[in-house]
Amino acid sequence: MSKAILSLIKPLHRPQPKTSRKFLITPHIIELTNEVCEILRTQGQQWEETLQNRFFEEDIAPSEVAHLVFDKVRDCELGLKFFGFVSQNRFSLDGFAYSSLLKLLARSKVFGEIDNVLLECLQSEEKLPTREALGFVIRAYSESGLVLKALELYSFVLKTYNALPQLLACNSLLNGLVKDGNMEAAWFVYDEMVRRDDGGESSCLDNYSVCIMVKGLCKEGKVEKGKRLIKKRWGKNCIPNIVFYNSLIDGYCKRGDVKRAHELLEDLKEKGFLPTQETYGAIVNGFCKRGEFEKVDQILKEMDSRGMEVNAQVYNCVVDAKYKYGFVGEALETTRHMIEVGCKLDIVTYNTLISNACRDGKVQEAERLLEKALNSRLVLNKLSFTPLIHAYSREGDFERASILLVQMTECGLKPDLITYGGLIHGLVVAGEVDAALTIRKKMMERGVSPDACIYNVLMNGLCKKGRFPDAKQLMLEMLGQNVSPDAYVYATLVDGYIRSGNFNDAKKLFDNIISRGMDPGLVGYNAMIKGYCKFGMMKDAVFCISKMTKRNVYPDEFTYSTIIDGYIKENDLYGALTLFCHVIKRNYAPNIVTYTSLISGFCRCGDIAGAEKILKGLRLNGVAPNVVTYTVLIGNCCKEGRLAKASSFFEEMLMSKCNPNDVTFHYLVNGLSNNAPCAVSRTDNESGLDKPMLLDIFGRMISDGWRPISAAYVYLMAGVLYLLHMFQSLLAFV
Length: 734
Known about the structure:
By secondary structure, this protein is an all-alpha fold.
């Protein structure tokens, strides 16, 4: 019942309790009621005519037995049929009949019909239902999550009858309000229950009422206030029991105060209360969150000593916590122990194992676990399939991911945003943007709307493919779907404009974001800084750092590496080194991109010694050179004819298990073929430097009359074979 309905209800005088009927319920009346119910159940399409004939034979109106019929049928469809029959024949029902009808409808929770009946019967005193009947409706609303409707009807009952609905209805409403986190309204109801409670047989408050409020307080972290509430109601229909202790213990554990929760456990045992599964479960959960597994083991042993079986829910909590704290072996040992003691793994256990196997890259193991769960006839859910779909998507096995998606739907499960999101992200990372767009289309057809994150992933993929117009079109579609762009979406657009060479539009968009009071975030600022550097506007790039720090957005390694790379590309090695020193002083750890940019800068200046110092520095800081780092060094050495150096770097690259790329091979082939005479001499122009073994092979081939370019390719092949030989030797030794 909505406020709009309540506003149509006329103010009523406070009704007097109804205690008698207009006529006695005789055996004949009961027999007639039974006949009516039988006609409704069995007569099919002829029921209406049969009813009219039956009542025509009696000197009784259908409305006079309506309340008895509604009480008898127990089937809301039959009750509504009879209600329609009475209404169509213009018989007027009284409050008793409406009360019985409302109780029937409330049991079946047909809320559309309940609203219609309430709208009709609450407008006159003659039709006004009993307080008990309205209590039934309040319970039905509350138990079905329609808590605000229940609260409105509760207020109506309070105002109209100057009395509360029955206790069960009030407790149901209290419970619904607390679940929804609406503690203000819960206190309004509870305080009225306390005010009207006389402590007698017709109590307006009981243990359950107080326990509901204690749970609500504990949910808010106000455990001490919950304890005070119990003490305040002590002896007034509020007898302490294990449920109160469980609520307080759970509250302390969720607040992170496991010590006090454990003290309360000891206190309840001293007072003669027996802890339950729920008691121990809350304590175990608290210790698990803190990673105190020795205490967890003590609690489990105590449960065993009391002859209490540990259920799967408690074990699941332990398994999940051990995974989160990195104790993978111990987590698996716990699952083995579960099986040994006869505690069956449930779907939560399997989901935890599947998720962590996928996280550790053990996808085949995760799939075997899924198969086991199916063979155990457990009911799978989204969490059973989603980690596997994500894992296969990360590995680029989209065929298997798609098969699992189909299998998921065949199990009656509807893939959600998270499920589709992992598949779309994997496809975009693999460069399959069109396939990702197809998945987005299918998810929308199935009623799952993409969020800003999925749109951002797709737009990012389109921009990297050079399809910026398509990315802009996707942005328009996003706005049409009423999905608000976030900082990441705008950053993607800024980056897209920059990639397409449209710096002015990128800057306009970025300035527009700032002027609208939005925070571009670190990603947005980094995108703009990248644009400044790409177009040689280094002063603006540095000034952008100043602007972002004033807005409490602080640069990261990517910010600095982008600007340092920008300085290098502008041939400003001094500017790059100055900023690099600033980064070191601020205790930032430079990444491989920063080091590689500096190495490139020194190489551009012909300072190989300086580049090697940077290479030595990055190794000392625990950063491994990558293919770009080695390729920059090899390419520069080849251009300057320093074949020994280039070959040395190439051998080092192979030994570091860093795979060369096409650019590396191109530099080496050109360098060797263009500087073949240098390879014939014992040393190159770097006095005293012995030729690497592979370069010696190349020199011998040139001396034997090989064409330089052919010798260069054989040289590279020899390098790769040498590397394979070294690995095989190591494996044989192991």
